[in-house]
Amino acid sequence: MTAALILALAVVSTLAAGASVTDRGWRRHLTGAGPLLVVTLLALPVAAWGLGRGLALGEAGVGLVLVAAAPGGSTGPLLALLGRGDPGVAAALFAVLAAVGTAAALVATALLDVADGAAVLRAAAAVVAVSFGPLVAGLALAARRPAAAARLGRRLSAAGAALLVATVVALAIDYGHHLAGPPTLAAAAALLVVAAAPALGLAGTARRVAAVQVTLVRNLTLALVVAVAIEAPPPAVGAVLSFGLVMYAVAAGLALAARLRVGSPRSW
């Protein structure tokens, strides 16, 4: 059930993001995003490693590094839309982070020569299909039938919000007993602050909202698959799941706050 919810959420999120894009100036959407990309792709895993060592998290620290090194979570674009962020920025950043994160997972698995590298390859293929397929379909619809795409984007955003709540509840029920202790949860919160901070330097509220959400949300599925492939210990898996629940709580709270701050009431 949880897997089906995650799959549905990924498809709805990226399809809604693509359908909501009205400006395809991809280079413009990524203007000023250099520091953000450096932090989320390189500095965040290093920060996770440092926190794991500094807080003596042991095996749980491995999980934090895995999830920190897995950018491009497919829920990011949906949360950007729910917070009324710029859909073009959300789509462009998501595409870059998802592509680089998936490639990095494959390279790391190959270098480590793990026994179950095929599972990572299958997961990477699934991530590409589920993430980029709906995104491209939404972009195509927005280019050919913008009015219909706008209506679809609003409806999918509403459906995605409900799916997100259901997914978080399902994760808490299924994996709540795997949650890590307070030090790991505190480290997860600190990493989220590090991930979001560079996005605040972008010009324009809508761009900042979109960038914060897309950089906050990590690819939990890919992180868990890699954890299994390298035979990471249970505390590492628990740390990934714990990070996910903290991540969703923070990202959803920020999206709601941004939406309320905009003020003008309109449909989802």
Describe this structure in words.
The model is unreliable at 264-268 (pLDDT under 50). The protein has a single domain (2-258), classed as Na+/H+ antiporter like fold, CATH 1.20.1530.20. It has 268 residues and is an all-alpha fold. The chain has twelve helices and no strands. It has helices at 2-19, 26-29, 34-54, 59-68, 76-82, 87-112, 117-144, 146-175, 182-196, 205-216, 220-229, 234-262. The chain is globular. Helix 1 runs antiparallel to helix 8 (146-175), helix 4 (59-68) runs parallel beside helix 9 (182-196) and helix 8 packs across helix 12 (234-262).
Brief description of this entry?
The chain has 268 residues and is mainly α. Helix content is 78%, strand content 0%. It is built from 12 helices and no strands.
Task: Label this structure with key terms.
268 residues, mainly alpha, Na+/H+ antiporter like fold, 12 helices, 0% strand, globular, disordered C terminus
Nearest-integer average pLDDT? 84
Total E-strand runs: 0
Which architecture name does CATH use?
Up-down Bundle
Percentage of helical residues? over 70%
Rg calc: 17 Å
Shape: globular
Structural class: mainly alpha
Number of domains: 1
Low-confidence stretches: 264-268
The major pleated sheet works out as: none
CATH topology: Na+/H+ antiporter like fold
CATH class: Mainly Alpha
Q: Could you state the order of secondary-structure elements as H and E?
A: HHHHHHHHHHHH
Topology:
Blueprint lengths: L1 H18 L6 H4 L4 H21 L4 H10 L7 H7 L4 H26 L4 H28 L1 H30 L6 H15 L8 H12 L3 H10 L4 H29 L6
